[in-house]
Amino acid sequence: MTLEILSWAAVVLILATSAVILANRDWRLSLGALTLQYFAAFWLITRHLPFVMGSAKLITGWMVVAILGMTKLGLSAEAEENAPTFLPRGQWFRLILFAAVALAAAGATPRIESGLPGLGLQVIAGSLFLIGAGMIHLGAASDIFNTILGLLTMIAGFEVLYAAIESSLLVTGLLAVANLGLGLSGAYLLTAGTVALESEETL
Amino acid sequence: MSAPFLWIIAPLFASGFILFFLRNRFASLAGGTFSAALSLVALIFPMDVALLVGPFSVKISPAIQILGRSLAFNPAQGSLIAAIYGLAALWFFGVHASGSANRFVPLGLMVVALLTASIAVEPFLFAALLMNIAAMLALPLLVPLYQPPGRGAVRFLIYQTIAMPFILFSGWLLAGVEAGPSEFGATLQAGAVLLLGFAFLLGVFPLYNWIPMLMEEAHPYVAGFLLWALPTFTIIFALGFFDRYAWLRSSPQLFSAIQISGAVMAASGGLFALQEKHIGRILGYAAVVEVGLLALALSVKSPNLTDIVFLLLIPRGLELAIWSLALSIVKRRVYSLRFSELKGMARKTPLAFAALILSHLSVTGFPLLAGFPPRLALWRELAEQSLTLSFWVYLGLIGLLAAAMRTMAVFLMAKENDTWEWNETWTQSVMLGVGVIGLFLLGMFPQVVQPFISGLPALYQHLGP
Q1: CA dist B94 to A104, B32, B101, B323, B430, Å?
Q2: Closest Cα to residue B24, out of B111, B99, B109?
C-alpha cells in the first residue's frame, strides 16, 4: 500500500515538474525540475527493474542535468540576457495544452492497463504524462536548450514504460548512453557559435 | 578472432587513435586504408570457417556476448560488410580532398562501426538505439564549433531521437501480433508505430525537411556522408523487419503505405529539386528521391527484392560521395552554393563540374551511368505492378534531370573573356577521376557488384527467391 501511495506521489511529482519545465523560461528552475523528474521516473522504473538498474538511470539523468547546467553556467552573460526568460502568451498556451494532454493521458491510462495488464496504472500514467509533456515542449521550443529538455522528458517517459516490458542490461546501458549523448549533444549545440574561429585546425 | 571485434570494436579503437594522434592527410589516409583493409578481410575471409594462412590457422567467429546479449554476424553478411567498409574507405580517402574537418575520419569511422553493430546486435530491435547514438555522434561533424547550429541539425537530432522509441515499441507490439495475428486492432497499432518509426528515421515525406536544410548549413561532404550512411543501414534494418515478421510480409495495407510514401518522396523530391536554386539543397532532394526509390524497392512483390535493394544501395554510396566531393571543391571557391554565385564556375573547376553533373545524372538514372541498371530493374518490377507508381517515379526523375540541366546551364554561363583553369589539386583530381570511372564502370558493367550482392539473398530467407 505504501508503495502504491509513493508511486502515485511520483506521478504527481512528474505532473508538477513537467508543468514547471513547460511554463518557465529560467534554465535553473527547469534543470531543478528535471532533477526531480528523474527521481520520480527512477521510482516508477524500479517498480519493474531491480534497484541497481533504476539507479543507473537516475545517475545518468542527473549527469545529464549536470552537463547542461555546467554548460549554461559557462555561457556568456550576454547570451543569457538576450534569451527570453518569460513568454506570457506561450506560457499559458503551453500550460493549457499540457492540461489537455494530461487529461487525455489520464483517460487512456486505464484502457492501456486493461489491454496490457501488469504494467501498473502509475507507471502508465507517469510515462504518458512525460511523453506528452516532452512532445508539447518539443513543439513549442524554439531554442536548443528547451528542445533538449523536451527530448529528455520524452525519452524519460519512454524509459519508464519500456522498463516494464524489457529488462535487458544491454538496453539499460544503451539507453543510458543515448541519454548522456543527448545531454552532450545539447551541451555541444549550446556552445557552438560561441567559440571564435581561430585557425584552420578548428575547422 | 571474432567478427564483432574486427568490424565493430577495432574500428572504434582505430577512430580513437586517429582522433588523438593523426591530422589532415594522414587521418584521411589512415581511415581510408583501415576501412579498405576491413573491407578486404570481409571479402576474403569467410566467417566461421577455419583457413590456413601460411603456418597459421585463422578462423573468424561470428559472435561475441556483451551484457547478456550477443553481437552476432551471419556468415553470409561478409559481402555486405565488405561493401559497407569499401564505400566508407572511399568517403575517408576523399576527406582531405574535400577540405572537411579533421574529426570527420574518426567520428565517421565511429558512426560506421556503430551502424555496423546495428546489423549484428541481437535482438535486432536494439539497432534503433545504436542508430540513435550514431546520429548523435555525427552532430559535431554537422555543426562546427565556431558556427551556431541551424534548424536542419536540430531537426535531424529531434527526428532521429523520436524514431528510436517508436521502433523499440513496434518490435514489442509486433511480437504480440505474431502471437495473435487475427487481432486487427493490434496489427493496426503495430503497423502504425513501425511506419512512424521508419518515417522519422528515413525522413519520409513530409519529415524530410531537415535534409535540404542540412545540405545548406553543413559542409556538403559531411552531410553527404550522413545521407549515405544512415538511410543505408535503416534500409538494411527494415529488410530485417520484413524478413522476421511474417505478418509484415503479408500485409497489403502496409505495402500500399510504403509504396505510396516511396512514390510521393520520389516525385516530390524531384519536383522540389527542379525549382531549387541552391545546388547543395538539390543534392538533398536527390537523396530524398533515392530514399523514395529504396522504399519502392522494399515494397515490390518480387523474388528479386533483395537484389534490387542492394543494387540501388551500392551505386548510391559512390554517387553521393562524388557529388558531395565535387560540391565541397566548388564551395571552397564561392561564397555560397546558390546559382547566382556559380555562374561560369565550370571554367574555374572543370573536373569538379564534370563529376558533379555526372553523379547528378547517375542519380536520375541516365544510361551508361551507375544509377541506370538498378533503376531499370526497379522500373520493370514496378511497371508490372502499377503504371501509376511508375509514372510518379518517372516524374521525380524527370524533375531531377531538369535540375541537372539547370545546374549545367548555370555553371557554363561564363563571360566571354573567362579562361579555362585547372584549379583542382592532384588529390582532388585523382579522387574525382576514380569516382567518375567508377560511375561508368558500374553503369556499363553492373555485374561488378555481383560478388557483393550474390550472397545477400541468403540473409533474408523469407524475402529472397
Answers
A1: 52, 8, 12, 11, 10
A2: B99
End-to-end Cα spacing for chain B:
33
The torsion region of residue B338 among left (phi > 0), alpha (psi -120 to 50) and beta comes to beta
pLDDT at A70: 92
Among the partner-chain residues A184, A188, A195, the one whose CB lies closest to the CB of B146 is A195
Residues of chain B contacting residue A181, judged by C-beta atoms under 8 Å apart = 132-133, 136-137
Q: What is the DSSP letter of B58?
A: E
Residue of A nearest to B166 (CA): A158
pLDDT of amino acid B182:
64
Nearest C-alpha neighbor of A150 from the set B208, B136, B214, B155: B155
- Mean pLDDT of all residues belonging to chain B: 89
A169–B contact, CB cutoff 8 A: yes
**pLDDT band at residue B214 using 50, 70 and 90 as cut-offs:** very high
Q: Closest Cα partner for B198 from B149, B257, B146, B144?
A: B257
Q: What does the DSSP assignment read for B368-431?
A: TSTTHHHHHHHHHHHHHH-HHHHHHHHHHHHHHHHHHHHHHHHHH---TTPPP---S-HHHHHH
The upper half-sphere exposure of residue B398, i.e. CA atoms within 13 Å in the direction of its Cβ, equals 7
Q: Sort out which chain B residues have CB atoms less than 8 A from A189's CB and list them.
A: 139, 143, 149, 153-154, 157
Q: What is the grid cell recorded at B140?
A: 559535431
Instruction: Collapse the DSSP code of B110 into the 3-class scheme (helix H, G, I; strand E, B; otherwise coil) and give the result.
Output: helix
In this predicted structure, the answer to whether residue A201 has a pLDDT above a threshold of 60 is: no
Other beta carbons within 10 Å of B65:
13
Q: What is the DSSP letter of B203?
A: T
Cα B436 to the chain's mean position, in Å? 18
B407 band by pLDDT with thresholds 50, 70 and 90: very high
* CB A140, CB B148: distance < 8 Å: no
B149: nearest CB among A144, A162, A182: A144
**Secondary structure of A78-96 in the HEC alphabet?**
HHHHHCCCCCHHHHHHHHH
A21-59 core/surface letters (b: 16 or more CB in 10 A; e: else): bbbbbebeebbbbbbbbbbbbbbbbbbbbeeebbebbbe
The interface pTM score, or ipTM, of the predicted complex is 0.90
pLDDT band at A193 (very low <50, low <70, confident <90, very high): confident
Q: How deeply is B236 buried, as exposed, middle or buried, from its count of CB atoms within 10 A (0-12, 13-18, 19+)?
A: buried
More confident residue, A157 or B305: A157
How large is the average pLDDT for residues A72-97? 68
Confidence band of B296 (pLDDT split at 50, 70, 90)? very high
Q: What percent of chain B has pLDDT over 90?
A: 52
- Provide the residue ranges of all domains of chain B, joining segments of one domain with +: 1-122, 158-459
**Chain A: residue whose CA lies nearest to B145:** A192
Element (H, E) at B139: helix B127-142
Q: What is the spatial distance between Cα A45 and Cα A39, in angstroms, rounded to a whole number?
A: 10
